[in-house]
Amino acid sequence: MAENRMMSLAALIRARDEGNADPKLMVALSRDAIARNDAVIKAFAHLPAEPVIGTEGPLAGVAIGIKDIFDTFDQPTTYGSPAYEGHRPRVDAAIVDLARRRGATIIGKTVSTEFAFLNPAVTVNPHNHAHTPGGSSSGSAAAIAAGMIPAALGTQTGGSVIRPASFCGIAGYKPSYRLLPISGIKHFAPSLDTVGLFAASVADVALLAALLTGRDLGAGPDEQPSDRQKIRVGLYRCALLEGADPEMRAALTKAADMAANAGFDVGEIGEPEAMALARDAHANIQNYEAGLACGPDLALYRNQMSQLLAGTIERGQAISPEAYDEARKFAKRGRVATRALFGEVDILLTPSAPGAAPHGLETTGDPRFNKLWTLMGTPAISIPGFSDEAGLPLGIQAVARFGRDKALLSVAAALEQAFKA
Amino acid sequence: MAENRMMSLAALIRARDEGNADPKLMVALSRDAIARNDAVIKAFAHLPAEPVIGTEGPLAGVAIGIKDIFDTFDQPTTYGSPAYEGHRPRVDAAIVDLARRRGATIIGKTVSTEFAFLNPAVTVNPHNHAHTPGGSSSGSAAAIAAGMIPAALGTQTGGSVIRPASFCGIAGYKPSYRLLPISGIKHFAPSLDTVGLFAASVADVALLAALLTGRDLGAGPDEQPSDRQKIRVGLYRCALLEGADPEMRAALTKAADMAANAGFDVGEIGEPEAMALARDAHANIQNYEAGLACGPDLALYRNQMSQLLAGTIERGQAISPEAYDEARKFAKRGRVATRALFGEVDILLTPSAPGAAPHGLETTGDPRFNKLWTLMGTPAISIPGFSDEAGLPLGIQAVARFGRDKALLSVAAALEQAFKA
Lengths: 421, 421
Fold this sequence. Notes:
Number of helices of chain A: 13
Low-confidence stretches of chain A: none
Helix content of chain A: 25-40%
Number of strands of chain A: 11
Shape of chain A: globular
CATH topology of the largest domain in chain A: Amidase signature (AS) enzymes
Mean pLDDT of chain A: 96
Strand content of chain A: 5-15%
Radius of gyration of chain A: 20 Å
Distance between the termini of chain A: 18 Å
Oligomer: homodimer
């Protein structure tokens, strides 16, 4: 099982703080694991010969993988596209610079699909190499799952953090919109593009978020939600659920039962129509914005693009401003309905994906369970712990109200413990 | 007077559509005017030897100046900073590509202050060369005012569109947040950075916006607001007004009188406290975000930065997440108050700047009348037509509810006519 060989960020940092692990040694662990595994997993797009090892700051010694959609001034940045082969941005993306300022070591660039869209890349799923790791943050998720690194950055425009986390059996956290700075990524749809984090466990991803941002995200072992009866957890009965795989539906039901056993106030909650309509509006918003944001690339590099990407940008450019405005109206109504829903419930539980990672590398899987939350800007996390009969991971997605990242992370950490027990 | 020699976009397009002006001739007019004037005005940071002349599309033949904060793949892009001397981005900014797709000719890059912040650049005010043209979109505003080009792009994070438009006696339009795509600019504070447009008149800037976006922005000569008695125009009595120059205060009063004479329902309206508090929150939001967005530049290019810029980024990095969240709370409350205010009034009138362009090039002037509207995301426009005793222009700023760009532009066009009469 991949899970057993994953690197625990919390354990590494504890060892460092107790004087039992030197930052250089911590990074060397990752370099070793990468050397042993990446020829098969293909999670990395670039590995520097001599990474600059951070030795000061809260992330000193932490090797972090950077999705190759983020600019790095000292490593090539291809955005997953042959058009950008060998491209060297002048400066880092804001979050990369922030990670360096906190002491992190930029261990390498992880594989992104082309422009972080749907065209699959080369990375394989560490749990079964014949399956996709998901996308578009394929390399970041696989590198964690294969135990090569303790922390990684990704982005989500549709389902590119939560879905690969689910397929790879790790924790993937998409914070509230703009909690993490976005400058210096290759934008696809700016009103949706969101920076996310990956680590082996919910506890680790929460720790990573706290150390990166300097925010109190309260997911330490002593900070778990105490008065669980007052925390309302709702199994989200959206219409999509019927189309999910039976094993995923069973996992979700089991997750809700375990949450109840762990002391939370668990119930079921239906999907307001305005939220279903908002989900349907995601495509027009995404594609209209991609028509603008990626128009400059289409103009110069069309013949170095997949037909899937080029066609999507072209179709986006054909969407009228009126149709875009109409879609944004549905999104706005959806946000009003989402706020109202989070008056009735604190945490929603829903599948991270329709099922386990599909066989083959021809698709990165389906983001249908993720698009709504990206559009709503609400924080979401994929909690690992379940698997299907073949042993492939199934993630449970927890979602909270915009800005309630701390509550989400602390409840998700408690649920992760409950799923393990 | 600079005004008399300005290029009318509407007249150029009319001539083109009637077969009286070839796109190449239209561009040649601008090239000539630039050759005659720019040695003194210094509005351009770069002029290509042979610009690619667009001959198809609604903006065919329109020479557009691009603030040097937008990426252009075929012209150097310096962001107003010596650190980026000779920088060539791989692709255009989204709005530059959009302008090209509409047929516009990228006539050159206009001077931006360093990173579009407050450190002054070399451009002079065409109305009096001893005065600043304002900033940060200094070159775009001056190039229009000097009659060199009919259209230009700028950006506003504090007051960088409305203020230079006011100082230069032209129309500057800051649309609703994200009406125009932002990808491919050098970000300073992403939640504030807004693309804006410049032209000689309100009618021109509305036409430019409509042709660029394909939106019905309804500012054609036949589309002026008909039922003016139903349009409530409010002179905005914010506390700042007392600190404005007497000539600006007189111009604002006169503007309100003229609006009433033109048939609008004119009154006065006070500033809700929540909006004053939101204005005060602008600095922490801007500087915290600049600490992140420009952190990568500080890390590599500190010794090529002005102390003003470097110090602002450093101070931004020292702002705590809690202080930033607190500032965002004030912004949110301000938005609620702004929406409520626009239930009582359709258009607010307020100075575009405290007074006329300051003497000297040591400062680009004061954005205090602009910051609130940037933070609120509401559309704003500087309407030309007034001047002080020395003949320096004074702009009147009109503001409307978020998303009501069409209403703003049509009322502002009518007011512009009224101011002339």
